[in-house]
Amino acid sequence: MHIDAPVAGRALVVVVDDRTAHGDNADSAGPLVTELLSEAGFLVDATVIVSNDEVEIRNALNTAVIGGVDLVISVGGTGVAPRDVTPDATADVLDRELPGISEALRASGLAAGALDAGLSRGLVGLSGSTLVVNLAGSRAAIRDGMATLTPLASHVIDELSGLGE
Q1: Sign of the CA dihedral 135, 153, 31, 85?
Q2: What are the contacts of 59-65 at 24+ separation with CB within 8 A?
Q3: Percent of the chain at pLDDT above 90?
Q4: Which of 29, 34, 5 is nearest to 17 (CA)?
Q5: How many CB atoms within 10 Å of residue 4?
Q6: Is the pTM of this model over 0.90?
């Protein structure tokens, strides 16, 4: 008898990168985030690749929220360069910020040596009942960020669904 493991929730990954969106680079961030989400028990609906453009990012995040995913993770575009606009687009989507998770992601990333994670302007918050997370784009920031994020995300999703009561 085969019993499936419980699903932690449905997720969508948004990769924010001009070169990948234009076909100049292969996507390495999306498969990594998808693998780490799957290992944490999440069912990943899709990976969407967009340019560093506020409207494209906002549309991708809103589509995920409207689609009813529990978790949407954007990767990239969180730094200090002029084209890094992911947090700006995300702010327009969020109903409530969860600054403690953002701070935990920055602190753990910096402690692990992922400078882009430590310098990230990334936001975390809720849009309706969807947890929206911005991660810095380096492999180190993704790996460390996901290790920090997945137990917190599972807890938030349980709380939102009433399972955490």
Answers
A1: negative
A2: 60/14, 61/14, 61/89, 61/90, 61/93, 61/127, 61/132, 62/93, 62/127, 64/12, 64/14, 64/130, 64/132, 65/93, 65/127, 65/128, 65/130, 65/132
A3: 92
A4: 29
A5: 5
A6: yes
